UniProtKB/TrEMBL annotation:
The lineage of its organism: Bacteria, Pseudomonadati, Bacteroidota, Sphingobacteriia, Sphingobacteriales. PANTHER family: ALPHA-D-RIBOSE 1-METHYLPHOSPHONATE 5-TRIPHOSPHATE DIPHOSPHATASE. Residues 354-396 form the Amidohydrolase-related domain. It comes from the Bacteria. This is Amidohydrolase family protein. Residues 1-21 form the signal peptide. Keywords: Signal.
């Protein structure tokens, strides 16, 4: 009898713990009826601004947008956004969001890297964790789409564009397997490493090591090109199967390269195999901007809120880089670092406004520019009739840390829950101290 009582008490305690530990945010339900947002300043995303405007959407698609009074729509839910701002959802490329939960944490919370150097067949898509507690904190700042990207090795794998809302990765997938990621070898020793300048006799030099890696890249792509040209194979090779898309134009090749020399080598490589290439990082891309423009190769810049790599560089170079590429006519986008820091993406973009970009150009950098680079600009990136209703409403300037205050958010017309773990903790301890809360 005593054992039964203890078991019963234990079960009750466990159920209580589970009840209080349950997730309080559920994925949004499909849009059930037309929604019209009125009275706001609308930032279309392509440089155009509509004052006192309206945007209407139904079944996940934008049906009307304009200035003044919204046309009548039977049964529509009307959201009064007078004095507020409407923006297209921000798009975050090249991130480990959804692949990493606790940085440097338990192994089960990190799933962004595979063993081996050449892994074009690895797919980040199936590792994407829709239950991540980090995702809602990023989503609450207007980031609605992301490109979870594998890391590690020379060729790290394939990425997809994901919606930051869904029950599972199948639900969240926006565009699957859009590209393959590789890191271009650097033919120099790591800076600041003790003894980096010394060379032991017989030891492989950084240049020799880099050339071996470059040869391996060329060799693999050469094999894959022949494999793709051979039609339907009788025996399948997973690595080469994954690369067929880069030769028929359905997949891009995202090449991590910062130095001007490495970018030039990457462009020559892309031209040899007729690849649709994207430079990722591109810290010295402004030095070879003409080459990038001539070959229609865009750049995804990695953060602005950082210091330059070289002591002799302008200390403000990272802030100025978007403007330098804008003036050079190179298509450029922006990402942040890692996963949780992507919630700062709009502020990274806003930083460039003080160094040459207009506010609308900075907005385009993380909306339509990123959409073009990822190949999703036909359906998102701007607020236009026929595109997906991926948008949000903010009380203030979304590129300003003090101004961003998201009040309404929609992904394909679905009304997104803006709650997150940070807000829950803020409320919990504000309640404890008897402080007023504003969530």
């Amino acid at each position: 009898m005593k054992k039964k009582i203890l078991l019963g008490f234990g079960g009750l305690l466990l159920s209580t713990v589970l009840a209080f530990g349950q997730e309080t945010m559920s994925p949004a339900k499909p849009q059930s009826g037309p929604i019209v947002i009125t009275g706001a300043t609308i930032h279309v995303g392509n440089g155009k601004v509509i004052n006192n405007g309206y945007v209407a959407f139904d079944k996940g698609k934008i049906t009307a947008i304009g200035e003044g009074a919204a046309p009548a729509s039977a049964g529509a839910t009307v959201v009064d956004a007078t004095g507020k701002q409407i923006y297209p959802g921000f798009i975050c490329p090249i991130t480990t969001l959804g692949l990493v939960e606790i940085e440097e944490g338990a192994r089960g919370t990190v799933d962004d890297t595979e063993t081996g150097e050449l892994n074009p067949h690895v797919r980040s898509l199936i590792a994407f964790n829709t239950d991540s507690k980090v995702i809602p904190t990023v989503r609450s700042n207007g980031v609605l789409l992301a490109q979870p990207t594998p890391e590690g090795g020379t060729i790290s794998g394939q990425s997809s564009v994901m919606m930051l809302d869904g029950w599972n990765w199948e639900d969240a997938a926006y565009k699957k397997d859009i590209g393959i990621h590789l890191t271009w070898p650097v033919a120099r020793a790591a800076r600041g490493r003790r003894g980096a300048g010394a060379q032991t006799p017989g030891q492989e030099t950084p240049a020799e090591r880099a050339q071996k890696q470059i040869d391996a890249i060329y060799n693999l792509f050469g094999q894959a090109q022949g494999y793709a040209a051979g039609g339907k194979p009788t025996v399948h090779n997973l690595r080469l199967d994954a690369m067929v898309g880069v030769f028929n134009g359905t997949k891009k090749v995202f090449i991590n390269a910062d130095g001007a020399k490495e970018i030039e080598q990457a462009v020559a490589f892309a031209k040899k195999f007729n690849l649709s290439a994207v430079i990722v990082g591109g810290k010295e891309s402004y030095l070879v901007a003409d080459l990038l423009k001539q070959n229609s190769i865009p750049v995804i810049i990695k953060e602005t809120q950082t210091l330059p790599d070289k002591d002799e560089d302008d200390v403000y170079l990272p802030y100025k880089l978007p403007h330098l590429l804008q003036d050079a006519g190179v298509l450029y986008g922006l990402t942040g670092i890692g996963f949780w820091r992507q919630r700062n993406l709009p502020f990274e973009a806003g930083e460039a406004v003080g160094y040459g970009l207009t506010k609308e150009q900075a907005l385009s950098m993380i909306t339509i520019n990123n959409a073009k680079i990822l190949g999703i600009d036909k359906t998102t990136g701007t607020l236009e009739i026929g595109k997906d209703a991926n948008l949000f409403v903010s009380n203030g300037d979304a590129l300003d840390m003090l101004g961003l205050d998201v009040t309404n958010e929609y992904i394909q017309g679905r009304t997104i829950d803006l709650n997150n773990k940070h807000k829950q903790l803020y409320k919990k301890f504000s309640d404890k101290l008897g402080l007023p809360t504003k969530l």
